[in-house]
């Protein structure tokens, strides 16, 4: 979907990196290494996205650190488009909400870091769920989003917490 609208694969990787998780940051050489691309192609796209106001940057020593510009008028829309591209919306709709009794859902690993590697690691915090039904939902969702799901179910949040991208939290009434 996104690659039909945006022809630059480098730009898509940068949008996924920065708009999948607002906490993601990156610098030129690190991004070039992460994506396996030249620093020049990364620099060109970083400059374009910065000039458009979609990315902001700050100096960290001798390097520029980039991140999504959360005050840009298109920030929420781009975040939503990237979420749909990665399948997060379907994941939440089909797996998390389909189970019904989920307290939290947290994406961890590569996808929390904005890397589209093909396997989404999801931790579900739920007191009691039907594991057979969860397996059914996982298989159904994998077919729909064309990505593998690795799901970990916990009854409660561990004392050290769960690091990642919070994609769902049950509203406490």
UniProtKB/TrEMBL annotation:
Domain of life, source organism: Bacteria
InterPro entries noted in UniProt: WH_DNA-bd_sf
SUPFAM superfamilies in alphabetical order: Winged helix' DNA-binding domain
Protein name: Transcriptional regulator
Source organism: Cyclobacterium qasimii
């Amino acid at each position: 979907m996104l690659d039909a609208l945006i022809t630059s694969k480098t730009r898509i990787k940068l949008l996924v990196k920065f708009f999948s998780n607002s906490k993601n940051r990156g610098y030129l050489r690190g991004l070039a290494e992460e994506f396996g691309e030249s620093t020049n192609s990364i620099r060109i796209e970083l400059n374009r996205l910065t000039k458009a106001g979609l990315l902001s940057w700050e100096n960290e020593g001798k390097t520029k650190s980039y991140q999504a510009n959360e005050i840009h008028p298109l920030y929420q829309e781009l975040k939503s488009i990237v979420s749909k591209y990665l399948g997060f919306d379907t994941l939440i709709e089909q797996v998390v909400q389909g189970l019904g009794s989920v307290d939290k859902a947290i994406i961890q690993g590569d996808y929390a870091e904005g890397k589209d590697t093909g396997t989404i690691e999801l931790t579900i915090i739920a007191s009691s769920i039907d594991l057979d039904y969860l397996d059914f939902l996982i298989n159904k969702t994998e077919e729909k989003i064309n990505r593998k799901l690795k799901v970990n179910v916990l009854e409660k949040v561990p004392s050290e917490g769960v690091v990642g991208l919070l994609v769902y939290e049950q509203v406490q009434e």
